[in-house]
Amino acid sequence: MKRVMLLLVLIATINLSANPFNNIRVNTRRVYLPVSQKFIYAQRAAAQGNVYAQFDLALMYARGDGVRRSEREAFKWFHKAARNNHTEAKFYMGLSFAQGRGVKRQVQLARYWFKLAAKAGHRQAMAYLVSLERSLKYKSIKNQRIGFNTYR
User: Fold this and answer.
1) What is the domain partition of the chain in residue ranges?
2) Top CATH class, 33-143
3) What sign for the dihedral angle of Cα 87, 93, 94, 99?
4) How does pLDDT run across 54-89, given as a tens digit for each residue?
5) Are 124 and 89 in contact (CB under 8 A)?
6) What is the dihedral of CA 105, 107, 112, 117, to 10 degrees?
7) Disulfide: which of 52, 86, 88, 141 matches 81 by Cβ 3.0-4.6 Å?
């Protein structure tokens, strides 16, 4: 009896592992990307103007969390949230311009957004603003020296 049961189990596993469709070639190219449920809800809420959903959507695009990673889309949603007075989004706008993520690197715009976030009380923005101001001051002093030396 044990041998019969063992034989049946063996035959069943062999048949289950053998896939008759292995020899058929089918074009299985995916047309859509699987997205998370959180992304779908955030997208709906962001389209209706919810600032927190806009910021969450931007973070999802920036990190590739539940959706394909896109710095350009992240920048777009950070900008919408920042224009709706979201402090953290203003900081990320400064980072985007300072590092050139999703947009061309522009130090003056980075300074502008860091200043807005710092006025709202964002501590990291204050630190980045100080660092940025120092680097801009150093570059202007260096440029003045170069200009002075060229007229000798």
Assistant:
1) 33-143
2) mainly alpha
3) positive
4) 999 999 999 988 889 999 999 999 999 999 999 999
5) no
6) 80
7) 86
